[in-house]
Design goal:
Layout (H helix, E strand, L loop, with lengths): L4 H18 L3 H18 L16 H6 L9 H18 L3 H18 L4
């Protein structure tokens, strides 16, 4: 890959954060993640049958990138889920300043999830 692992991870976190703010449906998430992961897949020479998979959890990219499936027993997963829902709620209420605070928490949790810190 042209970028080092940390810059790829930072970009992935940033783009995922933005996607979580904008996505309204599961399909939005599927499409958004495919768009985010496409350049990474190309740089790793990974091929999938379709840009938009019918079953997001079986997308082969998930195995190679290491994005874990949601685990209701994992505290980081539960915290990320909660913070994501809070960000959506705050966005609907127009409370962008409060979202910025939660985004910093999300950044930290995602870095912990990927063992970057």
């Amino acid at each position: 890959m042209k970028d080092n692992l940390f810059s790829v991870a930072d970009k992935l976190v940033k783009e995922t954060k933005e996607l979580l703010k904008q996505a309204r449906t599961e399909e939005d998430l599927r499409i958004g993640f495919e768009r985010i992961l496409e350049p990474i897949k190309k740089s790793l020479n990974l091929n999938t049958n379709s840009l938009i998979s019918r079953n997001f959890n079986t997308l082969s990219t998930m195995k190679h990138i290491g994005i874990p499936k949601f685990d209701p027993n994992n505290e980081i997963h539960k915290q990320l889920s909660y913070l994501s829902k809070e960000c959506h709620r705050l966005k609907e209420e127009g409370k962008d300043k409060e979202i910025e605070k939660l985004e910093k928490e999300i950044d930290l949790l995602v870095k912990k999830l990927f063992n970057i810190i």
